[in-house]
Known about the structure:
The structure holds two protein chains of two kinds.
Chain A (H helix, E strand, L loop, with lengths): L2 H19 L7 H9 L3 H6 L6 E5 L4 H14 L4 E3 L7 H11 L9 E5 L5 H8 L3 E4 L7 H4 L2 H13 L6 E5 L3 H4 L11 E7 L25 E7 L2 E5 L12 E7 L26 H10 L19 E7 L2 E7 L4 H16 L4 H10 L6 E7 L2 E6 L4 H11 L8 E5 L11 H5 L12 E5 L3 H10 L7 E3 L3 H11 L5 E6 L1 H13 L10
Parallel strand pairs in A: 1-3, 1-4, 2-3, 4-5, 5-6, 6-9, 13-17, 14-15, 14-17, 15-16
Antiparallel strand pairs in A: 7-8, 9-10, 10-11, 12-13
Chain B lengths: L6 E7 L9 H15 L3 E7 L12 E4 L4 H13 L1 H9 L4 E4 L1 H6 L2 E3 L5 E3 L6 E18 L3 E15 L7 E5 L9 E2 L1 E3 L2 E4 L5 H4 L1 H16 L11 H18 L4
Parallel strand pairs in B: 1-2, 1-3, 3-4, 4-12, 5-7
Antiparallel strand pairs in B: 5-6, 7-8, 7-9, 9-10, 11-12
Amino acid sequence: MGLRAWLGLWTGKTAFFALRLLGRGASTLPGRLALRVDPALIGDLARRLRRGSAVVTGTNGKTTTATMLAAGAAADGRRITHNRTGANLASGVASALIAATGWGGAGRDQAVAEVDEASMPAVCRAMRPRVAVVTNFFRDQLDRYGELQTAVALVRRGLAAMPAGGVAVLNADDPLAAGLGETEATAHLRRVYFGVETDLPDDPGQAPSDAGHCPRCGRPFRYEARYYAHLGRYACDGCGLRRPAPDVALVALEEPWGRGAGADGGAATTLVATAHAGGTVMGSAATALRSPAAGAMPAAQPGPARPLAWRLHLRTPSGPMSFDLAAGGLYNVYNALAAAAGALALGVEPDTVADALTAFRSSFGRMEAVPIDGRTALLALVKNPVGLSEVLRTLARDPDPNKGILIAINDRYADGRDMSWLWDADVERLAAVPFATVVASGTRAEDMALRLKYAGIPSDRVAVEPDLAAALRRGVDAVPPGSTLYVLPTYTAMLALRDAISRRGLARQFWQV
Amino acid sequence: MKLAGARLVIGHLYPDLLNIYGDRGNVLALRRRAAWRGVGEVEVRTYTVGDPLDFGDVDLLCMGGGEDKKQVLAAEDLRARGDHLEAAVAGGLPVVAVCGSYQLLGSYYQLPDGSRLEGAGILDAHTVAGERRMVGNVVVDSPLFGSLVGFENHAGQTFLGAGCDPLGHVVVGRGNNGRDGGEGAVRAFCVGTYLHGSLLPKNPALSDWLLLAALRRRYGDGIEWPALDDAAEERAHAAAVRRAHETARGRA
């Protein structure tokens, strides 16, 4: 490393030290300052990683997928650095590298970086990652990025900057992500596809399709199966473009909750977890999940069910893999698939990957369970129509009529200023869901309340409380002990809500996660 | 005329191609408000490239915005229907076209290289591709509808001819071209605008004007038109106006 790099590293480390003394989070500032001293610092530090790096990008699921992937690599005994708070611009990646590099330049074994689509070209040019995982492309914050094609092009430029022999891990079920494997940009890479090869429970609902048309000839795709949004098994009758056969494939998905215990004759594992004060509910669910042998039924406990977990069965080039996943939502099934494919590409053994994914716990507002006053607050970040639709689809599977729903919509820059996306989400699904209360909050609480009205939920059933802390209080009070309050915040609303919760000592500050 | 016996057909054009800015919200607003008023039958029909479409079969047309490539596909199709659409609009067919489809209703769209993509020629307006996108909250003062609120995100700069009026004047935001203070265009009951957000739920006066025009065209005057409780709409409108002023001043 040259002098500049050392100065950059020490600047960053000093900033970390100072921020820690002040008790402040340090997920981007050290990196930003250090990059000002040495703009090439990411490359300098990445070269000190003994086993190179992996990046995760795409519209939805970056944070969860990267966390799972990092856990898989760590389970193999590697010392990992990872921008785990979701600071996914160059400054966040640099901060994670600086934190993991000693004052004397000693680096860790491997870096796993979640990277924003717009930062992909620069980060990949600097980091030269061995593996890049592309989760999906959904419409997201068009006021910042313009068209969806812009995001795809940025990721393509990032992949083109990877070293020869690297691996592009692509979602076969998303025509936009899979299409990257057909371009010149990935010709020097090994391409690994992941996808779903089994039927999924419940209907995919209404969500506008972002990639319903063949990128090659413009014809509408024919879907043999659609899982959610435009993800599915698609084919073009015009030019013959087909979904690539997935190398890492979900071949069976067991649905461990949502039906009454025993109602399905034991074909699927049924899990009913009880919320209890003090311990995290995720912990108790996971204990119940890890124990049963195939086909056995964990003891159903009294109390409301929650969308907690899945059991996945995968076919991979390294052999079959099965594991339990303590994270609800079909999108988390995709995140686990992406992470499994990424971890295998990094050379981790299938058993090790399966153990790491079984031990995985949602965090940082991605279906994160926080006990509050005997209730469970389940925080699920929502930031675009597909994400909101899928979170609503997940909570719709909770039959508890006493559950509460808090939707907190901010329109600050980091959230996206444009509220149009609320109208593209499948909020209509809520009209058929029993609940005790729904609270609309945030700087655009009134927009959300109006969206609920047009979704067919009477206005007298919707409480409007723009203040986030007051809305949380209101939601918790409206839900009886033992039930769940689903909290659906946009990004800045989530930061504020977590802050309100941590001031009550209920969740860790995000930089401690 | 009692609404219980009435029927309303909303035609949603190119939902597969032009749909990126919550355009479904506009169709939803029209559908719901017609049903809440007691219109006996409300039907939404979707049409895309190549579908047979007789404008006499629909009472109201909705169109949205799309990405460039998809917009070109829609443009060719809409141009081919230009004469029929012209007759329908001249005959009072209500149309609401947002963003991309607003541009397509004009006479042409001039690309950065100077070449022109012909429009349907329904509105006396043309659009010139601009360098910088105009993105942000918009508040418009409209002579027909009072305050209108929405969000704009466009690079094209639209200029109106003498054959149509602006929908209103920009209070916050950029509007048609960022220069003359105008936003949108109105000819008879055809409205083109850059406002999404979605447009119609937060601007019930505009929704109702379109609905009433559609019903009058089919059933004549004397339609019973009960008022709705628009408290939620008014609150959302007021909040959007407040946020527009705050974000325009650079406040988060």
